[in-house]
Amino acid sequence: MASALMNKPTGKQEVQSVRQINKELILEVNNLEIFYGEKRAVNEISMVIEKNSITALIGPSGCGKSTFLRSINRMNDLIPGARAEGEIIYEDLNILSEQINVVALRKEIGMVFQKPNPFPKSIYENITHALKFAGIKKKSMLDEIVEESLQKAALWDEVKDRLHKSALSLSGGQQQRLCIARTIAMKPTIMLLDEPSSALDPISNAKVEELIIDLKKDYSIIIVTHNMQQASRISDKTAFFFKGDLIEYDATEKIFTNPSVKKTEEYISGRFG
Ligand SMILES: Nc1ncnc2c1ncn2[C@@H]1O[C@H](COP(=O)(O)OP(=O)(O)OP(=O)(O)O)[C@@H](O)[C@H]1O
């Protein structure tokens, strides 16, 4: 698996150091710093992320949650001037290494954004687009993956009779579940969710939350949320960020009932934010 994430060696490239991490863990973050030009947005954070769990990232606006999330599948590479130092160990490789094949990485570590962003194509094509690009052409196989992904995203029953209708005809909540299905189709191990239900109405939000809880049996989920009730309802671990620092990281119940750090207590009790 790991080797599929490496670019082909080109002569003199250094051999990527392999660091094994505990089998219960999916990621190990060591002294991660992220910069936009001269400005440091994430300050030397270290944490481990457990497999098949939901990890919530909370904190006030601008504290570095999304920047950290995007570093996990190297989406920050797309931002001119952004750079990261430190390590994010996944599959015994450092994700931040230049030798990582980011296209392969982003299949294994999928991302869903705040605003549902389906392609202006049919529901079916939204899921098959990347699969075809990855070389899967056989219709029976595409049909199978479409059904499986929509089932897992709890959307199949609502759309099975209109797969060839435009994805834009779906409600916002359905569009977001379609975006989750699109990610699932790539068979990821980790799903990064950046405020996935903040743009949705309460009923769609509840459905997406239910779905996220259900997905953790198959995936490791990291979610940025501004909604502290959401973090306490769905996550197993919560990380509180403030001004680029990781202030406290613990079991969600502990963070919300008996945090160890005063700043966390002030934030969860609404004294700032
Ligand atoms: N593309 C960018 N270029 C320059 N600076 C950026 C960029 N994106 C974020 N920043 C800065 O990095 C810091 C962290 O931003 P980030 O978006 O990660 O915070 P956040 O906690 O996710 O905020 P929010 O909750 O509002 O989404 C902020 O100071 C922000 O202005």
From TrEMBL:
Species per Swiss-Prot/TrEMBL record: Neobacillus rhizosphaerae
SMART domains for this protein: AAA
Keyword entries, A-Z: ATP-binding, Nucleotide-binding, Transport
All copies of domain ABC transporter, residue ranges: 27-268
Protein name: Phosphate import ATP-binding protein PstB 3
Lineage: Bacteria, Bacillati, Bacillota, Bacilli, Bacillales
Pfam families: ABC_tran
UniProt GO molecular function: ATP binding
CDD domains: ABC_PstB_phosphate_transporter
Classification via InterPro entries: AAA+_ATPase (IPR003593), ABC_transporter-like_ATP-bd (IPR003439), ABC_transporter-like_CS (IPR017871), P-loop_NTPase (IPR027417), PstB-like (IPR005670)
Annotated NCBIfam families: 3a0107s01c2 (TIGR00972)
Superkingdom of the source species: Bacteria
